[in-house]
Amino acid sequence: MSFFNSDLTEAEFGAKMETVLQHNALGMALAVGHRTGLMQKLAESQEPKTSAEIAATAGLNERYVREWLAILVTSSIITMDKEKGTYFVPQHCVSFFKNPANGFIYELIYMMLAPVLPQLQQCFKNGGGIPYSSYKDIHEVLAASSNESHKQTLVQKFIPSIEGMHEKLESGITYLDVGCGVGVPSILMAKQYPKSEFYGFDFSEKLIDEARKEAENEGLKNVHFVLHDCGIFDSKYEEMFDFITAFDSIHDQARPAEALSGIFKMLKHGGIFSMIDVNSYSSPVDNIGKPMSTLKYIISLLHCMPVSLFFDGGVGLGTCWGRELAMKMLGEAGFKDSEEKALEWNPFNVHYISKKY
Predict the structure, then answer these.
(1) Neighbour tally for 133: CB within 10 Å
(2) Which of 83, 166, 283, 355 has its CA 20 to 30 A from that of 94?
(3) Angstrom distance (rounded) from CA 357 to CA 78
(4) Every domain range in the chain assigned CATH 3.40.50.150
(5) CA-CA distance, 10 to 43, in Å (whole number)?
(6) How far apart are CA 180 and CA 182, in angstroms?
(7) To 5 degrees, how large is the angle CA 250–CA 189–CA 163?
(8) What whole-number distance in Å separates Cα of residue 306 and Cα of residue 131?
(9) Third-level CATH fold of 10-103
(10) Structural contact between residues 55 and 93, judged by C-beta atoms closer than 8 angstroms
């Protein structure tokens, strides 16, 4: 039996709580900066500017901009010349400011999750979950961040990381993305590999409609989006696909075990299933000190777990279901030789590669 105990003194604990409060305040400011475009405008500045100049460039009110800048100055995020009243982003911060996927996108997510707290309080008392419809804008923000990553890495890095997959897609195979959202992976690959057929399944009618419109706008004939709950197996798709992916979608499923079992049945013999999911371990103790562990758990508590538990029979797997449980469930679904593989360009996730023999 193993235990982990915090050995902080009272003074150290107090200092830590002060740091938490300061970081929470900074996080809210970063979220505001992202939503207003101030982060990007600051990053584009080639020289120090006054609050009036920054506000004019961003088309915003100077007084509000000045107060926002004060938060970043006191947090040592940007520099200020007191005599000249100018502000500047240090060079090492520029790329972070330009690309929201670098981190402060999660501060925006926190703000978007906050409105569900009253519903979450009821869930603590009565169980159950929270419907997707309660989360305003958050799925669009998550999708935008994920889709930007796909555009930069899917064809260039992810596909080549799977032995022989590039060649198979070039020659012509049938692909499925489970929990496809607005369909970015399928669309990107459909353009890159015209000889292959691409499918995307999702239970959200809104997202499927958006995916279909984008495919139509691109003039793609080899991509198909289907409104389908992957937790319910449909025999017409049995052994239909050579390659199946699930990008951060299995842990959100109401019935993840059934979804994995269905994926196994839909895969042809010799086919590959790539499950990209959150890089964590199944016990909280094993996640101590690991990058962004607390962030992963709070997103799980406020979103991933309750959206699963909202459905009848939902199990609430949670964001940090972990490597051990993931491998166990893959084995129970029928995959006997699964492999865990790090994604060098994305430490937030781990790649589970499974083959159907």
Answers:
(1) 8
(2) 83
(3) 55
(4) 153-355
(5) 40
(6) 6
(7) 75
(8) 8
(9) Arc Repressor Mutant, subunit A (1.10.10)
(10) no
Q: Which fold is adopted by the domain 153-355?
A: Rossmann fold (3.40.50)
Q: Is the alpha carbon torsion for 287, 289, 290, 292 positive or negative?
A: positive
**Span 181-225, pLDDT tens digits:** 899 999 999 999 999 999 999 988 988 999 999 999 999 999 999
CA–CA gap between residue 62 and residue 202 (Å, rounded): 44
Residues 156, 329, 278: CA angle, nearest 5 degrees: 40
Give the Cα separation of 251 and 304 in Å (integer).
7
Burial of 304 (0-12, 13-18, 19+ CB in 10 A): buried
Type of residue at 255? R
> Residue 264 and residue 354: Cα distance in Å, rounded?
9
SS3 87: strand
Q: ∠ CA(275), CA(185), CA(129), 5° rounding?
A: 60
Question: Mind listing the pLDDT tens digit for each residue in 43-71?
Answer: 888 899 999 999 999 999 999 999 999 99
For the segment 256-261, the average pLDDT, to the nearest whole number, is 97
- Please list the alpha-helical segments (H only) found in 227-321: 256-266, 293-299, 305-309
Cα separation, 67 vs 74, whole angstroms: 11
pLDDT (0 to 100) of residue 6: 65
Q: In angstroms, what CA-CA distances link 228 with 26, 181, 183, 241, 248?
A: 41, 12, 14, 16, 17
Identify the CA nearest to 248 among candidates 317, 307, 200, 179.
179
Q: How far is CA 175 from CA 180, 234, 280, 323, in A?
A: 12, 16, 27, 25
Ranges of H-type helices in 165-252: 165-171, 184-192, 205-217
Which residues belong to CATH 1.10.10.10 in the chain?
Answer: 10-103
Structure-token pair, residue 99: 């690309």
Distance of CA 88 to the CA centre of its chain: 30
